[in-house]
Design brief:
By secondary structure, the chain is an alpha+beta fold. 41% of the residues lie in helices and 28% in strands. The chain has a five-stranded antiparallel sheet. A two-stranded antiparallel ribbon has the order 2-3.
């Protein structure tokens, strides 16, 4: 068997499974699930705090907000479910398994596709 023929057969075998995986991700995205795309203290219990920390990411502001509490550290690759999206402010309220209250975070740190 020629190498080119073997490659075509292998590709034909792999492509349907990739399509099935894409469909699963599309289903999750349709249900409101998103992947977090960054690490850092960018999520807060209050919308105002999330807006404040996303606009002023200076060390002094971040440290002050962490000391006051209510700031959550995002972990790249975690799956969250979007509860509400405020397009005007660029923030999303998300449910993160293991956290008892929903948190607000910048929508730009959410992806409909898995992150690596």
């Amino acid at each position: 068997m020629k190498v080119r023929t073997m490659i075509v057969i292998a590709a034909a075998a792999i492509l349907p499974s990739l399509s099935a995986l894409a469909d699963k991700y599309d289903d999750l995205a349709t249900e409101g699930y998103r992947w977090v795309t960054t690490d850092g203290p960018f999520a807060c219990t209050s919308k105002d705090d999330a807006n404040r920390i996303s606009k002023d990411q200076s060390d002094n502001n971040t440290l002050r907000m962490v000391r006051n509490g209510g700031v959550y550290f995002l972990i790249r690759g975690v799956i969250v479910r979007v509860v509400q999206e405020d397009k005007a402010s660029g923030l999303s309220q998300v449910h993160w398994a293991g956290i008892t209250t929903d948190i607000w975070m910048p929508s730009k740190f959410l992806s409909k596709r898995p992150v690596t």
